């Protein structure tokens, strides 16, 4: 290429980089970015509006469910009193007796009637025409079956009441148990939709009751009431919940157009903002085209920002792993020259995963930002705090002198982290475990110091968390021991080193053994019996818990079937399900296969799941529990009271039992706080129609408190330690046990 050709090419290249050429292209990119961001924000706001609508629907559905349940409980109680009064005083004497006692519902809202076996109304309040209801569906329902439950008929009207009304009925039996008639409570369908609020449901929302047969009992849409029709398909924002034991469902539906009206206004505003911003950008670009130096300054600022992001954590703004390593190398080099020391503290938050899983990632991010700010406030300007990743932080204290001199700084950090934080309207408290290594005693390079500080942090975890540990050489030995144990664990299952023991579960009032909990022990060929507290966390961490859990499940089912085949009284065997097991996709299939292979009936198996596991992904957990429950297998929540579950979540769990954690049982009779918690759990469970079992019962004082406060069941050393299968069989075969 000739020199003059190279000169021309270089000149055109420089012109391409000149402002009057590059700036319009850059402006075009910015315009694209403005509209991309605008549409992205619109999509994000749409998603937020949809989530808010879903949350609002869920909240209203829960509120309406509670309101209807209270009303139905009152009606059912009236029916029970009517039935009892008829059985005592006869059909003609029942209503006067209840009226004198002030137990009849207000006649303005409810009509109470008594019908004999021939379908003739013999008494009512307020008084109404004595008509025959023998041809009515609700009368035939009780003639044909003795369900023992309240039946709710579709809306009807008759000669006694020309207005549409709902009938709540219960069967009457004579002394021989034969059909003797029914008792009725009638009310206007609008009674169950009076809580319709336009401010929340809008003009086209729906609120009402639908029977299990799909027939609408009461439905309100705006000012319009309807009933008797079959429920057709519902919209996107709708929900229905079953009212247990009465064959009714509560229904709430929201109109999507009304729900999204606010979003549509915001969308139009953002589009206008983007239009205005685009116009401003065009004008500004024209001006900047005249002042090229301004473009150069902008590029310089961007470069500075990029450098900052490369060395700092985007969430907290703290130095990241890369910058921490660089500063530690530099600090060590300075200490080598000056003969000083460097303290490296590795900090891990205790309980962060539970907060992150239970309250969501946004709450977890907010927690990390608050903790980072608190840590920074505890240090000097020459010290460094950085985020190493996840919920791990690193402190660099330059020239701390003796290790004891750094203790106050570390204690300030620990106390600052421990202060409660409000997240999503809930007070949350996390602690931290701190491990410390000091240059030059604990290592002469950054990698060694960080590794040893990490080992000290794990020792702090092992010592109960929320404490600070300085590195010692014995910590590496502990890590090596853990690795050896993990290696042995890999072969333990294949070599048949595990065995199961069974701790009896006892009914508090009768003393009868009704079930057992299967507990695993590791018979190590060299170390002897190893407790689950040592190897279960390792199995969970390594993923081996899935295979071990399946072995426990299959062995427990087979052993229970063997006891039954030997003629022992049937027992329900409980098997703990670890977090890894519960989240494993084939859990339901594994349970079904264990039952099929052992021949054990599903009602003799119970799975125990901790509430913390359920709250990680509530929707998926409830769906999986429903599949297990559908097989006939019972479910219980283990260690109840130690997690983050809410009452609204608890009532959706398909469970039969709550197990009070032993930490609340330990000080019963000595701690008023634990007594209050235990009695509250018992009362809550019973109101939700759940049974309650207390674990870790070791004293007569604990058992007495539990029995007096209505606890149903117990297990613990007071009755029996965990026993091998043969000893448990001998215990169940004892005459005293058979008599109980």
TrEMBL record:
Q: Name one GO molecular function term.
A: cyclic-guanylate-specific phosphodiesterase activity
Which InterPro entries does its entry note? Biofilm_reg_signaling, EAL_dom, EAL_sf, GGDEF_dom, Nucleotide_cyclase, Rev_trsase/Diguanyl_cyclase
* Swiss-Prot/TrEMBL catalytic activity: 3',3'-c-di-GMP + H2O = 5'-phosphoguanylyl(3'->5')guanosine + H(+)
The top of its lineage is: Bacteria, Pseudomonadati, Pseudomonadota, Betaproteobacteria, Burkholderiales
- Asked if the Swiss-Prot or TrEMBL record annotates the protein with the keyword S-adenosyl-L-methionine, the reply is no
Which species? Duganella radicis
Write the protein's name: EAL domain-containing protein
What are the protein's UniProt keywords?
Membrane, Transmembrane, Transmembrane helix
Q: Where are the transmembrane segments?
A: 20-39, 271-291
User: Which superkingdom is the protein from?
Assistant: Bacteria
Quick one: a GO biological-process term for this protein? cellular response to nitric oxide
Q: Which residues form a coiled coil?
A: none
Keyword field contains Nucleus: no
């Amino acid at each position: 290429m000739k020199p003059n050709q190279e000169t021309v090419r270089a000149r055109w290249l420089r012109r391409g980089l000149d402002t009057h050429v590059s700036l319009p292209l850059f402006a075009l990119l910015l315009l694209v970015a403005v509209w991309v961001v605008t549409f992205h924000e619109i999509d994000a706001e749409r998603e937020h509006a949809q989530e808010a609508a879903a949350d609002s629907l869920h909240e209203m559905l829960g509120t309406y469910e509670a309101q209807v349940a209270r009303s139905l409980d009152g009606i059912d109680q009236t029916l029970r009193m009517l039935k009892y009064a008829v059985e005592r005083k006869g059909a003609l004497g029942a209503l006067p007796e209840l009226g004198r006692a002030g137990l009849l519902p207000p006649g303005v809202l409810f009509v109470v009637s008594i019908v004999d076996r021939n379908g003739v109304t013999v008494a009512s309040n307020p008084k109404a025409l004595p008509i025959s209801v023998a041809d009515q569906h609700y009368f035939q329902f009780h003639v044909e079956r003795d369900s023992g439950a309240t039946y709710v008929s579709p809306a009807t009207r008759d000669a006694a009441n020309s207005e549409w009304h709902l009938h709540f009925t219960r069967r009457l039996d004579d002394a021989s148990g034969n059909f003797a008639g029914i008792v009725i409570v009638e009310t206007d369908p609008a009674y169950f939709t009076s809580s319709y609020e336009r401010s929340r449901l809008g003009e086209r929302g729906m609120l009402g009751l639908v029977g299990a047969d799909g027939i609408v009992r009461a439905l309100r849409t705006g000012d319009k009431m309807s009933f008797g029709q079959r429920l057709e398909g519902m919209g996107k924002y709708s929900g229905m919940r079953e009212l247990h034991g009465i064959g009714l469902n509560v229904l709430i539906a929201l109109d999507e157009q009304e729900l999204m009206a606010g979003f549509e206004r915001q969308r139009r505003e953002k589009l206008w903002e983007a239009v205005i911003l685009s116009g401003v950008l065009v004008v500004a670009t024209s001006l900047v085209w005249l002042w090229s130096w301004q473009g150069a300054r902008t590029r310089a600022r961007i470069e500075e920002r990029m450098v900052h992001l490369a060395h700092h954590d985007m969430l907290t703004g703290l130095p990241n792993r890369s910058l921490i390593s660089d500063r530690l190398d530099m600090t060590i080099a300075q200490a080598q020259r000056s003969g000083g020391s460097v303290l490296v503290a590795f900090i891990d938050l205790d309980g962060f995963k539970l907060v992150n899983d239970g309250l969501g990632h946004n709450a977890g991010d907010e927690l990390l930002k608050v903790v980072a700010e608190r840590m920074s406030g505890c240090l000097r300007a020459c010290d460094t705090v950085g985020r190493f990743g996840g919920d791990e932080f690193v402190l660099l204290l330059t020239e701390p002198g003796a290790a004891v001199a750094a203790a106050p700084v570390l204690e300030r950090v620990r106390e600052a982290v421990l202060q409660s934080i409000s997240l999503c309207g809930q007070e949350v408290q996390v602690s931290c475990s701190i491990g410390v290594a000091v240059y030059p005693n604990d290592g002469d390079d950054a990698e060694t110091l960080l590794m040893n500080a990490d080992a000290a942090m794990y020792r702090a975890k092992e010592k109960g968390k929320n404490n600070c540990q300085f590195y010692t050489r014995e910590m590496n030995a502990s890590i090596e021991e853990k690795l050896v144990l993990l290696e042995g664990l890999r072969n333990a299952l294949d070599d048949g080193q595990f065995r199961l023991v069974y701790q009896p579960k006892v009914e508090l009032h009768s003393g009868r053994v009704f079930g057992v909990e299967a507990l695993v022990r590791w018979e190590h060929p060299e170390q002897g019996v190893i407790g689950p507290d040592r190897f279960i966390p390792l199995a969970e961490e390594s993923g081996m818990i899935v295979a071990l859990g399946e072995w426990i499940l299959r062995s427990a089912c087979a052993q229970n079937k063997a006891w039954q085949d030997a003629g022992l009284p049937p027992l329900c065997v409980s098997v703990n399900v670890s977090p890894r097991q519960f989240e494993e996709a084939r859990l339901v299939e594994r349970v079904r296969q264990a039952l099929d292979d052992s021949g054990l009936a599903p009602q003799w198996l119970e799975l125990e799941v901790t509430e913390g596991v359920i709250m990680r992904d509530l929707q998926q957990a409830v769906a999986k529990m429903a599949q297990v429950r559908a097989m006939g297998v019972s479910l219980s929540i283990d260690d109840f009271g130690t997690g983050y579950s809410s009452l609204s979540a608890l009532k959706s769990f398909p469970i039969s039992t709550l197990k009070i954690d032993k930490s609340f049982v330990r000080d019963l009779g000595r701690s008023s706080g634990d007594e209050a918690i235990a009695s509250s759990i018992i009362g809550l469970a019973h109101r939700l129609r759940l049974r309650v079992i207390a674990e870790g019962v070791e004293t007569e004082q604990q058992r007495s408190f539990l029995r007096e406060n209505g606890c149903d069941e117990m297990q613990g050393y007071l009755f029996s330690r965990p026993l091998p299968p043969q000893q448990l069989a001998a215990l169940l075969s004892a005459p005293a046990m058979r008599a109980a």
